[in-house]
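User: Sequence in, structure out. Go.
Assistant: Echoing your sequence, followed by the structure tokens.
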Amino acid sequence: MKRQISFGQALATVVGSVIGAGVFFKIGTITAQTGSTSMTLFVWILAGIISIASGLTISEIAASLKINGAIKYLDYTYGRVWGFLFGWAQMIVYFPAQIGALSSIFGVQFVSLFGIKARYSNLIAILLVLFLLGINLIGTKFSSKMQSVITILKIIPIALIIIWGLFNPAKIPAPIIPLTVGTGHSFPTAISQGLLSALFAFEGWIVVTNLANEVKNPEKDLSRAIILGLSAITLIYVLINYTFMTVLPIDQSTNNNNAAFQASMKLFGQFGGKLVTVGILISVYGAVNAFMLTGMRTPYILAQDNLLPFSNKIGKANIHTGVPVVGAFIVDAIAIVMILLGNFTVLTDMLVFVMWTFNTMLSVAVIILRKREPELKRPFKVPWYPIIPIISVIGGIFIVVSTIINQFVLSIIGIGLTLLGLPIYYYMQKKNN
């Protein structure tokens, strides 16, 4: 594959992967869990700190190991089976579920904006997947440039809401201090549930490591894209949620999926509602493209090591465009099936649990490699070692344990689906030997 992705395009992929529909829909869930403006903002900030700590930690591996993506980082540190399981989980559920769920949200918002009958929303969602598949098949350079443009476009409505809201003369009080929870809420429960929801909204940034072999200067640009991207996302999340809470009383935000829409209506009138809907469409469009751009690389990476059936086909990239065509068809075909089946919340929540399990292993890998290979050239070193990696590991353990406690069946299914890859792994190992 050619090194054709610039720092700006890698940064746009990080921001585009993470900022999807959650920026508009999470406020209703988190205010219900915390019951106060101060705790709501605190959990967003804390989630950002944990995500940035994770990004700083894993960036050291990305800069040090001249190999392609988180799958290979796990291979290198723990052994091939762990990298395969991570890639398997990404390939069969994580990327297809993200693409399918986001495309469905796009379809629902599209028919609403243009007054089309609701029954056509799935058709719109499938057409979006096929359209973006075609865009990505044109070539990595073209699709990554388009990702940069879409990321800028998705930031515009968000920036308008933030700026307009901050200078709104009719702001209602949204106290940041003291740090309190609402009546009937306990502090430990509010912070654990709220943080869990906020951390879910940061999911997706690690997929940019799948582009490691195509970034022009991976030793510097990959780590910079992850760190700057997560920092910008944290700032955006905190500011837009603060803006919403200065416009809409917290009791009207609680468990309200239309809180962002209603707040924007108060800020801009009828124009505000359309602004939010257009913002959601652009935001979701960019997120789907980012997941498609990175997701198609997962089967390709596994097939390069002959770990999948028909690896000789899946592990090839188009000689003219650098696109792993078969990998793209696999991920998008599963995504379309998921659109037709419906209910993606269970799938995405389940795979977020699985992804955070592997993310925590990657953070621990930095500590392992520091001890195992002290002479390894590290163009980027995580600052304040080992404090930052410890914060990342604790955050990862928190989300894994919280999911097991609060969604036990979901976590068991997630583990089960991941382990389904083991028979294929050992079959291919035996075949290769």
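User: And one key feature?
Assistant: The chain has a mean pLDDT of 84.
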